[in-house]
Amino acid sequence: MPSIIPSYVYTLFASLIVGSIVICACGLSTLSVKNEAKQQQLANIADYIATESLRLISHARADNLTATLSLTVPSSIGDQRYWIQIKNDSSRAWVEVGFGTTPTVSEQRKYIPAEVSASGTYTSGLGAATLKCYSDGSGVYLTLSGGS
Q: Strand, helix or coil at 51?
């Protein structure tokens, strides 16, 4: 009899260890899926801003006018604030997005296929994001503003 009791104890202990490992693996997997979903939502916002920018640019060029658009973006992604920034260099313009409240260089970029001078930053939170586009004889200008 005494040899049977230790085998039950060892089996119970091994079951606890295996169960803990399975629970931790499931938790890590769930966290990974959540983070991937947040990154995808951030990429979708960048695509949306780039698409709306291109739409405004095409109207401003054709009609030589000023257009302002209020953008529909969420106030946060999950429980995190994020930022959107539009920039350009000598060859192209892009939309850059990232988590936090301070814009930095980000891997999440979406290029705007148009010759435009772009500037501005939006930080999520209070306030709406506004995209303004105007053209004159020297070029087309795109400005992003809003947020807190």
A: helix
Name residue 66's beta-bridge partners: 134
Do 95 and 112 meet the contact criterion of CB atoms below 8 Å apart?
yes
Count the Cβ atoms, other than its own, within 10 Å of residue 90. Answer: 4
Per-residue pLDDT of the chain (148 residues; tens, 9 = 90+): 456 677 788 888 899 999 999 999 999 999 999 999 999 999 999 999 999 999 888 877 666 778 888 999 998 888 899 999 999 988 899 999 999 888 888 788 899 988 889 999 999 987 889 999 888 877 889 999 987 6
* Rounded Cα gap, residues 21 and 54, in angstroms: 50
How many residues are recorded in the chain?
148
DSSP at 78: T
Contact, 68 vs 60, CB < 8 A? no
